[in-house]
Design a protein that fits this description.
three-stranded mixed beta sheet; Rossmann fold; 197 residues; eight-stranded mixed beta sheet; alpha/beta; 29% helix
Length: 197
Amino acid sequence: MKDDEKHGLRRELLARRREMGEEEVDAKSRAVQARVEGLVWQRGAKTVMSYVSVRNEVRTQGLIASLLRDGIVVAVPLCLPETLDLLPCRIDSLEDDLEKGHLGIPEPKPARRIPLPLGELDVVLVPGVAFDRCGYRLGHGSGYYDRFLARLAPEVPKVGLAYDWQVVEELPREVLDIPVDFIATEKEIVAPPRARA
């Protein structure tokens, strides 16, 4: 798949996501949340990094609040535009610790930026425009998550959150692309094969 095809697929999927109604987004996000919580508990995770959802992404605010209530340490990403990287920062409250940041995405307020070392992350929840069944991801094209995922230890589970229709058979991939280990949808947990051919 060439770059123009990739951009076309991204446009098509983002348009479909924009068309989703509030009730559909809420219902499907709650179903994804239940699967993710099960995975977090199964892995015995003490620290979870989660994106903060915007624009009809699978919603994570309810999941983050639930994890915090259960005593899980939660980190959210701070965008670093100068390096196009992400810095995981601990939060204790969705209401008190976040403000609209880079690209309109909620991120920690300056006074609440408590960076967490990558080695403390037990599970990382990853957004995407689409995922394929080998775990590869189509993002928004800015490269933030590509750089960040490359810095994680291989044993840290990377979990893509998606609606069922965002999971496709195959996506274009680059040599340095890092696949996720699981994809949680409202219908299933996809566990891509370990052999990344």
